[in-house]
Amino acid sequence: MSYQNTDNATILSQQANRESNxxxxxxxxxFAIREAEGIRVTDMDGNAYYDCLAGAGTLALGHxxxxxxxxxxxxxxxxxxxxxxxxxxxxKERFVDSLFKSLPDRFSxxxxxxxxxPAGTDAVEAALKLIKTATGNRSVLGFQGxxxxxxxxxxxxxxxxxAKEPIPGLMNDVHHLPYPYDYRCPFxxxxxxxxxxxxxxxxxxxxxxxxxxxxxxxxxxxxxQGEAGAIPAPDEWLREIRRITRERDIPLIxxxxxxxxxxxxxLYAFERAGITPDVLTLSKAIGGGLPLAVVIYDESLDVxxxxxxxxxxRGNQLAMxxxxxxxxxxxxxxxxxxxxxxxxxxxxxxxxxxxxxxxxGDVRGRGLMLGVEFxxxxxxWQGSGPHAPNGDLxxxxxxxxxxxxxxxxxxxxxxxxxxxxxxxxxxxxEVDEIATIFDEAVASIFEGRKQTQGVSA
Length: 457
Prior knowledge:
Aspartate Aminotransferase, domain 1; 2 domains; 5-stranded antiparallel β-sheet
């Protein structure tokens, strides 16, 4: 059957009949995509949308960017191999050249790279194996609110317990530490004192022989927690964590799978704090929209024997060509700086919306990785923070945005945070249109609720 001239309803029905019940995005974004270009997608019914999901941040240059398409077509037209395992090619070497060029010299000059199976979670699995091999230790330090993927080892690092409870045999050698979430400070303090307490807690735990935490193989963290709701770690806290881990010879893994390559207003989010990781996991944007994942690590950790970590699809040449084109375009056009500038513009507009509605508790993030958290002022919240997260309200806003032509994702506690991850090529005028749609959607939801409450009364 040809589906090119069918409608949304037909394809969604087929998908529901044949795909796993684990499918996620179609439940909140009920459409099928016919075509896409730049920051816009068009569905099977001819409706156009601004895409602020962009493959969960994968599409740094948006859909079907000419530079990326040209690189892939050139690869295909010149009879280059598409799949090479870990055998090298000119395309692979060019990709590594570009990737290392994008990294700070202090890191890349003594770095090794490991190509993994193609998903970000595969990079996390490889990084865990690497540090355990290098240190001989087993336990890992993770953080509350973390998201590092959905495979067994990566899932064990997750802060969301709902996703882990049904899974038997999940690794239990991960120790979750408090992450400095200013709006919902784990210590109920917030601000500078909150993140200082968070770092002091970590240092105290690692210094206490009665803590119950064995010598760790390493620590893994996101400089900005993405799925937790765009929560940025303070620079000072990151510097303290780097000091603490370095003084104790604990390898520090930074997961920049979502933040890497310009999204946060820096090429890499860790650069803002001026730190250097021992291990860096990358995926999403580095493949130009195609599956590709790598681990980059300090050469002192390069203790693997040949074949210690393999994977059939680590030789995706088309992704390397697309990735090289993406990296070079980002560097040539200073898209990290552009993301910082238009990100401030978008955040200012989102904060303006928040000023009008008390049920918006927090606006946060950096660059083009922003979150707007909705709250219920009348509900008790057993965790930290002034008000309970309101996932129902956030879902209503997401649906209203979708009806008005804007695709956003939800995340955070109770899925109460509207998340914005537009392509880095988004223009100032497009940011204004996105912000206007969001503002009007929020106003519409609140107006509808007022009318409903009036009728009920």
